[in-house]
Amino acid sequence: MKKDIFTIESNEKLAQDVFKMTLEGDTSNITASGQFVNVELEGLYLRRPISVCDLDGSILTLIYKVVGKGTLQMSHMGKGDTLDLLTGLGNGYTLEKSGVAPLLIGGGVGVPPLYLLAKRLIAEGKKPTAILGFNSKGDVFYEDEFRALDIEVFVTTADGSYGIKGFVTDALRNCGAYSHTFSCGPEPMLKAVYDASGTDGQFSFEERMGCGFGACMGCSCKTKYGNKRICKDGPVLEKGEIVW
Ligand SMILES: Cc1cc2nc3c(=O)[nH]c(=O)nc-3n(C[C@H](O)[C@H](O)[C@H](O)COP(=O)(O)OP(=O)(O)OC[C@H]3O[C@@H](n4cnc5c(N)ncnc54)[C@H](O)[C@@H]3O)c2cc1C
Ligand code: FES
After folding, report:
1. Model pLDDT for residues 4-13, shown as the tens digit of each residue
2. 107 - beta bridge partners?
3. Measured at the alpha carbon of residue 76, what is the angle toward residues 70 and 81, in degrees to the nearest 5?
4. How far is the CA of 213 from the centre of ligand 2 (A)?
5. Dist. CA 145–CA 149, nearest whole Å
């Protein structure tokens, strides 16, 4: 874990209540896709965890949805403003287990960490497919960015206003054979993917957190191998260890 001041390069609206922020700073401690940063915000006691969406040298990309005080404060910031971040948090995804044709499944703000994961899998010669799930057309973001990676992309919306109507699992039948799943999203979505997928997989949990670095047990969850802290032993858990 490393604590550093990052300078905002850009902060733009991507979709309904969803913003993309790029920041410049010391990213050397970020080692894996699926890791997160913890953002300090003025007047708030607890930092807010946000997944690493992309990394390019010293430029870090975060995508966040405005749901409360902290993310609202972030949405009001602009170029040149600074943020205090803890970086290199969480275990992240393990690429070695992906097989040749992994399936990446993201729901809402679970989509961002899959972008860096897709880039890293492609760099290793793998052929990922992505399923991006949203509630409605106005919520869709990063479809073009995923398509620009030259991979197969399916978009689902719960209300059918764009792409395939339904949940991410409704797109599974459109995908060819896959070797492993990598998913991130709300817990009901993760459970549905867990039940519907026929392969091993890695599931990233966006649990509510306290400290974010393993000290408070505020994010403890039960697994087949005992209690784990989502912030430090996760947020990514293997299919075989999850207890619902
Ligand atoms: C490992 C991890 C990675 C995450 N990555 C992202 C990301 O890339 N983009 C993104 O937009 N969000 C992400 N989140 C969720 C994000 O941390 C919360 O939305 C944020 O902390 C809310 O802060 P707030 O002050 O705006 O809202 P608050 O005022 O704290 O809460 C407002 C509402 O949001 C709910 N909420 C707060 N925290 C969470 C949470 N962790 N999960 C679900 N609901 C929550 C509260 O129950 C409440 O209803 C991630 C969470 C974790 C644990
Ligand atoms: S949030 Fe403190 S141990 Fe995980």
Report:
1. 999 999 999 9
2. 133
3. 95
4. 6
5. 7
